[in-house]
Amino acid sequence: MVESIPRSAGRAEDTPDRSGSRLWPRRPRRRSRRGHRYTLVPLLLISSNLALFLLFFVWPAVIGVGYSFTSYTGVGSAPFVGLDNYQRLLNDDAFYAALIRSLIFTAAVVPLTFVAALSAAVLLVSPHSRGKPVARVVFFVPWLISPIIAGVIWRWIFGENFGLVNYVIMALGGEAVPWQSNANLSLAIVIIASAWGNTAINMLMFVPAIKNVPAAYYEAASLDGAGSWAKFRHITLPSIAPTSFIVILLSTLGAMKEYALFQAVNGGGPGTENNLLIQYIFTTGFRRAQVGYASAASFVLMLLLMVIAVVQLVINRRKDS
């Protein structure tokens, strides 16, 4: 039956109408004014953000890349030096130390922030929790505080000579802990302070994601005898995987660019042992007046962040597939 149907069947240009005249293909309809409106309005809304993005991100980035090939000091001319700044970075021990410290800080603060934010979100969503309005306010207070003020608070708590924690320890008969003069302890304080400050915004993303998990999944799991941990592990975590990916990605990029909190807590100290890449770039560019060299370090940091983002995107897509 299918083979008996001629191939030309259904083609308008080959099918004569009842009056015997030939039918011609229809001309495309003109777009209506409403269609143009739906096209122009989004473009107008995007154009303002695009202009700001080009003005405050792309243009400074292009200028910075250009300076990275010069020995610019912030004033006067910018002599071209080619790849000399990048060759200096390869042999700069301070740059490697700052890079390793940045990676350690990121590797510690991202999981801690993730666990704290997810735990807080689960508590706020749980029907068994009480005092949720008060808990929301308490969880959000750290996010409302400026990083500089938060750093001053944590420095007051863990100060060596005037800190609250050392005061309690010494009142109980113990010895003062070198929270600021020990590099590892000083870094640990900043890690805790950073996780404390970033928990709220990540919790805000987890709460709607958990609420959007269909209740039928939990009901079916309950009928199968699954416990709370099994439901959380096999239903909640897979269902909120896209949100988890966004939280990890943003937390990683934010940790690699942390500056204000470090300056407020310990100033990158003791000495320069807790200088992250951002502190290293700031010190090199603005205090030592080596803008060209600092621009090269900034470009390397941007490439590193792009690589981290791309790797996480690839891993997330493989998991989705």
Automatic annotation (TrEMBL):
Belongs to the binding-protein-dependent transport system permease family. Keywords: Cell membrane, Membrane, Transmembrane, Transmembrane helix, Transport. It holds the Pfam family BPD_transp_1. The chain crosses the membrane at residues 38-62, 94-125, 137-157, 185-207, 235-256, 293-315. This is Carbohydrate ABC transporter permease. The keyword Cell membrane applies. SUPFAM superfamilies: MetI-like.
